[in-house]
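Page header: ASSEMBLY MODEL / two components / 559 residues total.
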Amino acid sequence: MQLPVIQVDHVTHHFGKQIVLDNISMHIPQGSIYGFLGPNGAGKTTTLRLILGLLEKQNGSVFIFGKEFKSHRIAVLKKTGSLIEQPSLYLHLTAKENLEVFRLSYQCEKKRISEVLSIAGLVAATNKKVKAFSLGMKQRLALAIALLHDPELLILDEPTNGLDPNGIIETRDLIKQLNTEQGKTILVSSHLLSEIEKMATDVAIIHKGKILFAGELQELQKARSGHSFIEMEVDDTGKAMQVLTGRFSVQLINNKLSIGFENKEQVAIINAMLIQQEIKVYHLSVRQDDLENLFIQIISG
Amino acid sequence: MKNNFLPNTKSEFLKTKRTAAIWLVLLAAAFLPAINALILINRPDVFVSRLYNNPWLILFYMIWKNGAAIILPIFVILICSIIVQIEYKNNTWKQVYASPRTYADIFFSKFVMVQVFVLSFFILFTFFTIVSGYVVNLFQSGYLFPSHPFRFKAMLIVISRVYAGILCVTAIQYWLSMRFKNFIVPLGIGISLLVAGLILTDWEKIVYYPYMYSLNLFFVGAPGHTGTLTLLLVNSFTCFIVALSAGWLDIYKRKGVW
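Prediction written out in full:
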């Protein structure tokens, strides 16, 4: 079994008396797009800052590339690109100058500047001052900086924040492309589950400093199937509830039946059971219970 | 670190492009030579005779007296703040600390930039002093600047002493600027300590007061001024090493936590 690229074990963090991370553990597999989900204030940025050594670790351990971060900081950061919170850019410098500032630190070849500008779609803005950039352009330039030294690991904190729908799609496609074509491991945080669902291979859900779920996206989707419902409108709700109770979980909501199911065959069975009992079914629909709903269910305990 | 220090210092230099730092060094270096030129042009009746012998050195002392006392310390207070504020203002500390640079590299490469600007101030200050001498002669031909040689050696001695005296202030102000996000704090502390020093110039312990080292070293040996050259140099260098080490240890202890 391959060693996880990032291994966070039993990390607890306090700001004063307030616990912001409560014994969290995450193992990020090599080659994955690891979606780190949670509402604002859940502890995502704190976790990412701890991973990058931007916060002093209080408890637990953080290993990156199998090395303890604190004692291998430089070696780890040479292979890691990051974008934490809002873009960190020198507004009085041009896009090219911003990249040059970090190129000198990373000691990579000059040609990387034009390469990453091209990847980020900022070639036309090469010599434009960053203070004249839109938020979307700033996000893309920050991503270009993170890619400058061609890192094996990318840590991106809400990279689509503030982007328009087109920008969100472009960033998502870029993340997927970097993962599939260049094999980069990407840890990406977001408060939007729909966003993560479209690109992640693995997911961790954090809420109030606790990891509520960590595993492959497929596992989460399986869990979702156990939390799906159909909504039915029938002529005799009382009789319908008698027929279905015992075999299915049934609730009456706004004079409509809400019935839990695990697979689509069960939907057909429910319908057939009601028809056999001469109950008229006026309306049947699967409630759009996507991961968003599951996310809310998970975080609301 | 050895391999990366020079590129990173170059990167620090690039960050100062289009900032107020460039204008500050030009204005601070030109201010006193310009003021003194105006005085000499307007009062030839007083100054032509005073500058009859050795005009360059006298002009140099006239300008540096206020330079060492006020302009240079204020310049240092401001330049430290401007250079460090580039990171605070742009919210870039986290990106700097998330790049593969040692803490020492981050701390000292920026401090080298402070020294580059301070030395630029000295060079420009001397240049503008010489320019002011020639400009004065254009308007008042009674002055004898063109016919007298520069006293470079004497000037260099004064400049070296004043620089040795200001080193400690650069270390203290750099530390304060790194330590506090709000630029008003280092600015306020620096200006207060400078003003307090100027008020206390006659105090016998002033030789131990860092913000007055540059002025004391400028006046060393002059009648009525306390402190020998050796004592002042020892005090200044000791203070410099202590302040720089304390600043470094304090920032190192924070380990990029901002």
